[in-house]
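Sanity check

After download, print the first record. It should look like this:
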Amino acid sequence: MKRAQSKVIFACQECGHQSSKWLGRCPACNVWNSMVEERVSSEKKRGLKSSSGAHTSPTAITEVADVSEKRIITGIGEFDRVLGGGMVPGGVVLVGGDPGIGKSTLLLQALGQFSGKYGATVLYVSGEESEKQIRLRAERLGVVTDGMLVWSETSVEAITAKMEELSPAAVVIDSVQTVYSETIESSPGSVSQVRESGAIITSVAKKLDVPLFLVGHVTKDGAIAGPRVLEHMVDTVLYFEGKSGHVYRILRAVKNRYGSVMEIGVFEMKDSGLREVDNPSEVFLAERPKGASGSSVLASLEGTRTVLVEIQALVSPALFGVPRRTVVGVDFNKVLLLIAVLEKKAGISLTHHDVFVKVTGGLRIDEPAADLAVLAAIVSNFKEVPIDPRTVVFGEVGLAGEVRGVTRADSRIKEAEKLGFERCILPKDNLKGLDKGFKKAHTGVAHIKEALDAIFG
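Expected structure tokens:
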């Protein structure tokens, strides 16, 4: 029998681009020194079968059985919230985050509690830790149960065979970059291995209707390492965010076929594991300074949840001619745009001032409703006039200085009132759509000049 020959290619470990020769810089993503040698068999590969195990014919959608979506509750409310209400049978979840942020701790704690509470069998496969190391961490987290099966294995074929043998209630692969398929000659972690291994494990999980969690390493830029096709292949992509100096961790959904995108869950890292934070608004505002200028409160919408966060700004004279702009927690270019709008439409010149903007608590805000709160914080510190501590600000700012409406203003106001805030500065268009009971206490503005007069007048 003629043996299959293999050829050498060079694949980018960042984007998956392939080349017949080594290149110093990837022509697709422009990353330097990312091309790695891989061996690819010339033998034709068989395509993956469908989740039913065989090729099928198309079916009219009206003839497809109406099956209600089932949810499997893990028992950790913040984790279930980000998943969209719990685990979905056959759903594949990719969890990424910086090294040491707590990805393995989160999954071991969540599925360990699930196994102990319901007596379900959970398979935890690790290619990075030994079984003894997993046991030590499970004891610290208090999730040592008979139903938690731990296994130190990296072979995809062995893992899928064990999944079919056990049919567990859930499976964790920690991490997808450490497993390898014997049909691929390249080393674990390479683009072809991650792509092929992810496809095989995902196919088996869907065939068995087993919830699958894949832990993914991230690059220095924060993206999940390996080919981008891995994120398209799975049903849900979660990022575990946080800084080493902060005790709070944020689990964010950036893709979810079964729930809301950009939903967040907040956890506090303790010696005994992760603790849920039921009311993150109180946490983010707990250490807010009293009577200090440059501080505004934003009612931000994160998925289906409204979170109140503090935005701080510091404006000081530039000492070296060229003013500095430093931003943490919001988009840098957006702050530059808002400073330009302030100068052109409100007559506040910051050309000779350094401007520093920060979202406290380690949270990152990407929604347009933060524009007005950022402006308010900058002007507050520039004028050295504090904002009323009982006031919440939100609204999108356009290039003409207009304040545009945002989504779900009523939810933002209700969250603010629940925490004792008495007044909201919001877009005038949103004020028109509110109930009459809201209109007496809140102020609608159509332009940033109106907003600044309402805040500081």
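If your output differs, re-run the checksum step. Summary of this record's structure: The longest strand covers residues 305-317.
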